[in-house]
Amino acid sequence: MASFHAEASESSNVDYTQRAQWLRAAVLGANDGLVSVASLMMGVGAVKPDAKAMLIAGFAGMVAGACSMAIGEFVSVYTQYDIQKAQLKRDRKQKNGMQPSHSAEEEEKLPNPLQAALASAIAFTVGAVIPLLSAVFIRDHKVRLGVVAAVASLTLVVFGGVGAVLGRTPVGKSAARVVVGGWMAMGITFGLTKLLGSKGL
């Protein structure tokens, strides 16, 4: 019984700020993938009723976005890695008054650029594939647009809720923020593309 209470106490004292880095990358990556590809498909669908055009645009957006996320995360985290490694060298040199060396524990604490890049690419792809799958078997143009918007909205609620639960933040507020942002992106993309299409551009 005592060990149960000890485990419960440990669980309640978890430092959720330690999850910030991977949680941010996963949630932002999945949200970006979902919103970017859904918006792109809605924009193409605003001017072209052909399902093939929407799917090709969505697939291209998924590949390009995943590559962009991976490269951006790799460069960003590698910069952080270099800064932290240089700081470790300075700190150890000051403490020991000799040529700096690193312990295995200190090296493990350094960020991993490749891991971060891969995680971002996978998260983006997971989000991006959802609107693609939702539209692939629907022939009717208007129904396809509605399904993409509806599926994207429901998935954004899930992503917002999961991020809030893992980070121990208010679920309703987090989900609402994510959904409204997604609606704005899809609506603006659809509206502007429709406007340009009507002008013959």
TrEMBL record:
InterPro entries: Ccc1_fam. GO terms for biological process: intracellular manganese ion homeostasis. Keywords: Ion transport, Iron, Iron transport, Membrane, Transmembrane, Transmembrane helix, Transport, Vacuole. Vacuolar Fe(2+) uptake transporter. This is Vacuolar iron transporter. The keyword Nucleotide-binding does not apply. It is found in: Vacuole membrane. It comes from Cucurbita maxima (Pumpkin). The chain crosses the membrane at residues 22-41, 53-71, 116-138, 145-166, 178-197. It comes from the Eukaryota. GO terms for cellular component: vacuolar membrane. Belongs to the CCC1 family. It is a multi-pass membrane protein.
